[in-house]
């Protein structure tokens, strides 16, 4: 009987924790490593929208578009509902009804399960909208979750399956060994593994650079803002020209926004103030919102390519899993990576995604 491979996962966000769970569930000897702990990095600053229909049909992850929702449902079933995903769907529209209609037609051609709603139908779904749009796209199967919490659930499930968790030390250096395997340098400590998966988001590019591997990956900032709300004022995700928002809990509303930099006219607090005004203008009850927190997350966005997933050329014991959108693709890619590493067969969906 072959010994279970010793595999380290560097990065315990939603992607790394999902990979750790799928590997441990199949009997691998897994060590999950993160300096801060599961779900404590950019994952905790993610919006938490599980969607395919309203994503770019030609963008990153398009190969997986027909699997994402089903894979998350299957994963949550395996975990007995512990991911706590709310499958309430999502509404999206443009300020130009013609563009909304054209977008809907594109999504239907791509075989997405979406519906085009008129003003009255939108108002029935979201009665707090002060000015419901003439047309909106409804994706009834979209879900929403708290990504940081979900990452911690996945890490806990991995440990229940036998994985070890190592926190409090960052990986400083990676050394592929000439005899096979990989040595990790963690402060004054060293640890050797048969294989290592780098799933530490934007930091993966920095870890790979000393190896002579330049990844087409950059850190792209985004802002997650939380507002306290006396009562729930949305039923599902709403993506309008003015804001992208959902209820995180009955008394907290969260929004996501791109971050344009540290200039005084577009810093996080300025963005949060503008969002509060937009919510007060657009939603009945929005005027009662009060700012709770505003956080900046650095998303690992690939440049000119799809998700970066696969073995490093010349170092087959080193594996990369770095991409955006991590929340959307974690359940699907997590299972595929486990299949790739343990079955020694690259799944069709991952072909062509390995770093070059």
UniProtKB/TrEMBL annotation:
GO molecular function, one term: oxidoreductase activity
The organism's place on the tree of life at top rank: Bacteria
Gene Ontology CC entries for this record: cytoplasm
Annotated keywords: Membrane, Oxidoreductase, Transmembrane, Transmembrane helix
UniProt domain FAD dependent oxidoreductase: residue ranges: 6-339
Name under which the protein is recorded: FAD-binding oxidoreductase
Transmembrane segments: 7-24
